[in-house]
Specification:
Helix content is 83%, strand content 0%. By secondary structure, the protein is mostly helical. The protein has one domain.
């Protein structure tokens, strides 16, 4: 009986951390997918029989994908909207800069737009084309956050399915 309480309590705690991780998908000050992965890893290390290493590896892969997408999506969005290499570079720089300008929740989305726009203008592109590149970078940043959120949800689903089936057995 005591094991069930400990396992359930640990699973609930992991669920809370994953919820924070899901919110962190939109808040750059909280590394959402990485936080969800760490919760699963700690659970596995503390209760090794409760979930498989496959669950941990799945979470690690989802976290790696999320990190890559975080930096690539703004670049991709700018490119899709006709940015030159300068606008794409500006979007990429904007992702980094946006992490450090308070309030980060706003600037993580706005900075790629601003930097893509500015880099395009510096490169001699007209205001309209630079604006399109900036909007593309903004859309890419938003898409990256949505995808990161979905990856955290996938990690949580895998984790809780494993816990549920282990508990049922």
């Amino acid at each position: 009986m005591g094991d069930i309480i400990i396992n359930t309590g640990a699973a609930v705690l992991v669920g809370i951390v994953m919820l924070i991780g899901a919110v962190g998908s939109f808040a750059p000050v909280i590394p959402g997918p990485a936080l969800a992965f760490l919760a699963i890893l700690v659970y596995k290390l503390c209760l090794p029989e409760e979930i498989s290493w496959g669950c941990v590896i799945f979470a690690l892969v989802m976290t790696a994908i999320a990190q890559i997408l975080d930096f690539v999506m703004s670049f991709w969005g700018a490119k899709k909207f006709g940015a030159t290499w300068r606008g794409c570079a500006g979007a990429f720089v904007g992702v980094f800069v946006g992490m450090f300008i308070p309030p980060q929740l706003l600037w993580i989305f706005i900075a790629p737009l601003v930097f893509a726009f500015a880099f395009e203008l510096i490169g001699g592109v007209g205001v309209e084309a630079a604006g399109k590149a900036g909007i593309g970078a903004f859309i890419g940043s938003l898409l990256a956050s949505v995808v990161k959120f979905m990856l955290v949800v996938a990690m949580a689903a895998y984790f809780f399915i494993e816990v549920a089936f282990k508990s049922a057995a």
